[in-house]
């Protein structure tokens, strides 16, 4: 059994809630697993404002993880600071135990200093993904920050990945893609996309509930959450979400 720990939306430096204790709780939980997951995936919004200080704190948290690591940026990240502060490229391929993780950069640069919350991959990156997937038929996971489809939450759906149909067209060409892992939505959820599971990792700093639920639009009192994706020898994925008690 191949196990992926999936964490998202750590938002180090968040103004509304210091996520330090939540991050420690999440990492403590992962390190206590026996055996530990084979890989830790973080699907973006590592920092809240994209400062060097935030990435230094995030790097210290990531350094507690002793195994393979795969990280991509989100809309709150700043690309150059992300790369410099974490020592991780914004787009990468991580190979672990016969599985490949294609980490994509869906961050749209700020315009006149104003953050852009929707995501875009663009033709050049989609061509890179197509080539990278075509280079090896090992089981592959496509990972990015922004969900490429609507998920039924009014706050999040308008700021999803704008070229999701183009990404689906690339994935359609590669049957060895097992699943798509995303963040951004701050909710534990799953749907289908391009005929594969689309798995949303939850949120460390907060949760965004369904519109009909009697909670704040951004629910900071919700427990930090994470996902564990179990991949069997036939490539079937079973996901278990965990919400951890911070009291």
Describe the biggest sheet? Answer: 6 strands, mixed
Order of helices and strands: EHEHEHEEHEHEEEEE
| Total count of helical runs of at least 4 residues | 5
Counting DSSP E segments of at least 2 residues, the number of strands comes to 11
Number of domains: 1
Assembly type of the shown chains? single chain
- The CATH C-level class name: Alpha Beta
Unreliable parts: none
Query: What is the strand content?
Result: 15-25%
Overall CATH architecture: 4-Layer Sandwich
Widest β-sheet, arrangement of strands? 4-5-6-7-9-8
Mean pLDDT: 97
CATH overall fold name: Purple Acid Phosphatase, chain A, domain 2
Which geometry do the CA atoms define?
globular
- What's the CATH H-level homologous superfamily? Metallo-dependent phosphatases
Percent of residues in helices comes to 10-25%
Note the gap between the termini.
32 Å
Rounded radius of gyration (Å): 17 Å
């Amino acid at each position: 059994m191949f196990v992926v720990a999936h964490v998202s939306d750590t938002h180090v430096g968040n103004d509304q809630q210091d996520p330090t204790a939540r991050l420690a709780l999440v990492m403590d939980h992962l390190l206590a697993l026996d055996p530990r997951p084979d890989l830790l995936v973080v699907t973006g919004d590592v920092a809240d404002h994209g400062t060097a200080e935030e990435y230094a704190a995030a790097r210290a948290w990531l350094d507690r993880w002793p195994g393979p690591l795969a990280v991509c940026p989100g809309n709150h990240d700043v690309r150059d600071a992300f790369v410099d502060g974490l020592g991780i490229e914004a787009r990468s391929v991580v190979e672990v135990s016969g599985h490949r993780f294609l980490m994509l950069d869906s961050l749209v640069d700020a315009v006149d200093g104003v953050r852009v919350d929707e995501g875009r991959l663009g033709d050049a990156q989609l061509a890179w993904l197509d080539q990278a997937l075509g280079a090896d038929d090992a089981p592959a996971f496509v990972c990015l920050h922004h969900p490429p489809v609507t998920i039924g939450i009014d706050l999040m759906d308008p700021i999803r990945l704008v070229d999701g149909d183009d990404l689906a067209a690339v994935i359609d060409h590669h049957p060895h893609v097992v699943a798509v892992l995303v963040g951004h939505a701050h909710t534990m959820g799953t749907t289908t996309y391009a005929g594969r599971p689309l798995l949303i990792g939850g949120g460390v700093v907060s949760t965004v509930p369904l519109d009909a639920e009697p909670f704040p639009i951004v629910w900071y009192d919700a427990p930090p959450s994470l996902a564990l994706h179990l991949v069997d020898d036939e490539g079937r994925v079973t996901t278990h979400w965990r919400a951890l008690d911070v009291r």
